[in-house]
Write a structure and sequence with these properties.
The complex is a heterodimer. By secondary structure, chain A is an all-alpha fold. Helix content of chain A is 86%, strand content 0%. The longest helix of chain A has 30 residues, at 92-121. Chain A is elongated and about 55 Å long. Chain B is α/β, with parallel strands linked by helices. Helices cover 34% and strands 26% of the residues of chain B. Chain B contains seven helices and nine strands; from the N terminus they run βββαββααβαααβαββ. Classes of the chains: A mainly alpha, B alpha/beta.
Chain lengths: 223, 200
């Protein structure tokens, strides 16, 4: 029953994303545009661009992930389907985990896939593409999982969007440091393994515990 | 079966009701009456566990519902103020998802049958009227006959006479099979005469 509920939620949210492709494209385009503004603003100094590339790509990924967080629960809250999820047969934590997974598939995975294209603009060395992709692959799910707590807490509040950024962005800092740091380590010719393992550990801890915090926040917000 | 003791509800600093006690046996129908803003929806939400009462508690078969959680959720259908259907999905998809989430086994023929019974066209919900959305939500009742407790918030709102009387027939059938129904309504309905009234 738990598995059925999780599968149903993932399939439902992917289906909804398919029917509203514009929303998905907005977050992705935002990522591309923000990351592309830096070379235009800073100028074409290859060494400088190479040096800032990991940080800029990661910050852009953070902001883009933030942008789509507001929609994670808001739609379901407005039309009453969230109440039905709260009253579902599966534990709410499972429902939340499934919704977060679907959110990552729609908002996180595309960033991982398009990041090499952005890296190209910064003339990032070829051997760093792998590290960048792995760091994003491990880090972007953490953004979705932690962000879900903030999205649940600010549900139904006026000006919730701004509050959400204030609440969630500080929590994103460790992911940013480790993610961008791993690419910089590799660029310096050192092993990025430490940072990547820590990112992986964060992902596991967040995936196990955060959905329950989100579930508790959802129950409070929907009272 | 369902038992509410000393329920108290406070919303936005205002006490809506206090010391509310009632019990609901199998086959019983309960109507929650009261003016706008008297707390009918809040009471229904307390009964299904979405809202924690300020005081008192609700028990299901002797156990507090706050402890039962999903085990209690499986025993009830709550149709709230909002129809709880997604605009971008078809009524069939909506109904299928709603049933799967509560663990009700269903198949395509049953979904089609339930939607046809309520004359809901299979177009995206976005294109449906308020009444048709309400019907799409009510169609779940046809697939929930084995679920003992129905909690319905304004089930007859926006419905035409035919759909309203069909809903009443469904409620009657559910009561006959030993189920219990709690509902709120502003429009006088035929089943009101069978209902016990809790006035807020």
């Amino acid at each position: 029953m738990i598995l059925t509920a999780a599968k149903t939620i993932v399939r439902r949210d992917l289906l909804l994303a398919m029917r509203r492709r514009g929303d998905v494209a907005t977050a992705l385009l935002f990522f591309v545009i923000v990351a592309s503004l830096f070379p235009l603003g800073i100028g074409a100094e290859p060494n400088l661009l190479r040096a800032i590339a990991p940080g800029v790509i990661w910050v852009a990924a953070l902001l883009s992930s933030m942008l789509s967080l507001g929609r994670l629960f808001a739609g379901d809250y407005a039309d009453g389907t969230l109440e039905q999820m709260l009253l579902g047969a599966a534990p709410l934590g499972v429902v939340v985990a499934a919704k977060t997974a679907a959110h990552w598939l729609v908002a996180g995975l595309p960033l991982v896939l398009i990041a090499p294209l952005i890296a190209l603009q910064y003339d990032v060395a070829g051997e760093l593409y792998g590290v960048l992709a792995v760091s994003l692959l491990l880090g972007t799910p953490v953004l979705s999982i932690i962000g879900a707590i903030g999205a649940a807490l600010t549900l139904g509040l006026r000006g919730g969007g701004v509050l959400l950024s204030l609440l969630v962005l500080p929590l994103y800092v460790p992911v940013l440091i480790l993610g961008a740091g791993s690419v910089e380590m590799a660029a310096a010719g050192l092993s990025p393994e430490g940072q990547l393992l820590l990112l992986g550990a964060m992902l596991i801890v967040a995936a196990v515990f955060a959905p329950w915090a989100t579930a508790a926040a959802l129950r409070i917000s929907s009272e | 079966m369902l038992e509410a003791t000393e329920l108290e509800c406070e919303r936005g600093g205002r006490t809506l009701f206090r010391g509310l006690c009632f019990a609901l046996a199998p086959g019983e129908l309960l109507r929650i009456g009261g003016a706008n803003g008297s707390g009918k929806t809040s009471l229904l939400r307390i009964l299904c566990g979405l809202l924690t009462p300020t005081g008192g508690g609700v028990r299901w078969k002797g156990a507090p519902i706050a402890e039962l959680r999903e085990d209690y959720s499986r025993q009830l259908v709550y149709l709230g103020h909002a129809p709880a259907v997604k605009d971008d999905l078809s009524p069939g998809e909506n109904l299928d998802i709603a049933c799967r989430l509560v663990g009700v086994q269903t198949h395509k023929e049953a979904l089609t049958w339930a939607l046809n019974a309520f004359a809901v066209p299979e177009v995206p919900v976005r294109k449906l009227s308020q009444g048709q959305r309400r019907r799409a939500a009510l169609a779940r009742l046809l697939l929930s006959e084995s679920v003992p407790l129905w909690l319905l918030d304004e089930p007859f709102a926006a419905l035409d006479a035919a759909a309203a009387s069909y809903t009443e027939e469904l409620i009657g059938r559910h009561l006959g099979a030993g189920g219990s129904v709690v509902y709120t309504t502003h429009q006088p309905a035929g089943i009101d005469t069978r209902a016990r009234l809790v006035q807020l």
